[in-house]
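Quick one:
INPUT:
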């Protein structure tokens, strides 16, 4: 199976690199300052997925001249604010039998992808794993709170989703095929929408947000997020906000307690953050008084 990773930052490079170690044909499309060291010296991956030096991987910075028509899977790992532009460029190139899988943050990426290639060629995914880029050409896989989830938009587990997940697992990336990917996307949104910006604002690891004062803010954000989900008719895995707060504190934060949020890393590098996609959905309902999310959203925008 042939893979193309579009938007190969830390996450995309790690996924592509692990697939290449398992013998799959992989092309990375990313920024030249990151791709050039990979071409010249190979890609180095370290951390919880093992230590690897990968030479058998294409690393380029331009899509059009490097896209191969027989590509089976496009892993879309751009920042969410780049989804539209990425799909606009990809649409005239992608084959009828290819599929685009979003492994991005936020809510709404799959809908954008489907507008360009159709729902039948779109899949959703969630990744709750930490990736750091110590320097260009190197990626460290630091923490993980869950397996990667992959799912069709029609809420069915298909031969295609099973095959892709089997390949991910074969490549050393623990993954599951699911029949409710939107529930998983919303579950990650609950996790990310509070922890990611708070970690950036306070400039701390996730584990430092469990102190009583910080977690009280998180619980207030969870309350507002549940109100939005209820208004949207979204089914969640948890019956109450209290149940989710307990799950977040006991199950999700501990394995990622040393993680610094992607938003904090973006701010440190002077890059645009994903605040619109991480928190925008929770402030886009004028009939709901999402006061804390609105303040967090405004503060996060000012950090850009």
């Amino acid at each position: 199976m042939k893979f193309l990773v579009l938007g190969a930052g830390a996450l995309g490079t790690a996924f592509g690199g692990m697939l290449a170690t398992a013998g799959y044909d992989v092309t990375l499309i990313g920024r030249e300052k990151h791709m050039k060291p990979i071409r010249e010296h190979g890609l180095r991956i370290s951390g919880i997925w093992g230590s690897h030096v990968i030479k058998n991987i294409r690393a380029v910075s331009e899509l059009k001249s490097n896209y191969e028509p027989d590509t089976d899977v496009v892993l879309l790992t751009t920042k969410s604010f780049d989804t539209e532009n990425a799909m606009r460029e990809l649409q005239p190139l992608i084959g009828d039998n290819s599929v685009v899988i979003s492994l991005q943050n936020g809510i709404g990426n799959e809908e954008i992808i489907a507008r360009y290639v159709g729902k039948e060629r779109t899949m959703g995914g969630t990744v709750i794993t930490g990736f750091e880029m110590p320097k260009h050409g190197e990626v460290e896989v630091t923490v993980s709170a869950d397996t990667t989830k992959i799912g069709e938009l029609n809420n069915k587990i298909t031969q295609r989703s099973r095959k892709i997940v089997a390949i991910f697992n074969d490549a050393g990336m623990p993954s599951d095929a699911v029949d409710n990917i939107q529930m998983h996307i919303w579950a990650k949104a609950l996790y990310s929408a509070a922890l990611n910006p708070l970690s950036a604002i306070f400039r701390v690891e996730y584990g430092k947000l469990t102190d009583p004062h910080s977690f009280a803010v998180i619980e207030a954000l969870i309350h507002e997020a549940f109100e939005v989900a209820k208004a949207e008719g979204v089914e969640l895995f948890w019956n109450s906000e209290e149940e989710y707060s307990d799950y977040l504190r006991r199950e999700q934060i501990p394995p990622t307690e040393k993680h610094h949020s992607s938003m904090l890393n973006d701010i440190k590098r002077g890059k645009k953050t994903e605040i619109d996609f991480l928190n925008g959905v929770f402030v886009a309902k004028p009939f709901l008084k999402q006061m804390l999310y609105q303040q967090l959203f405004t503060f996060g925008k000012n950090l850009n």
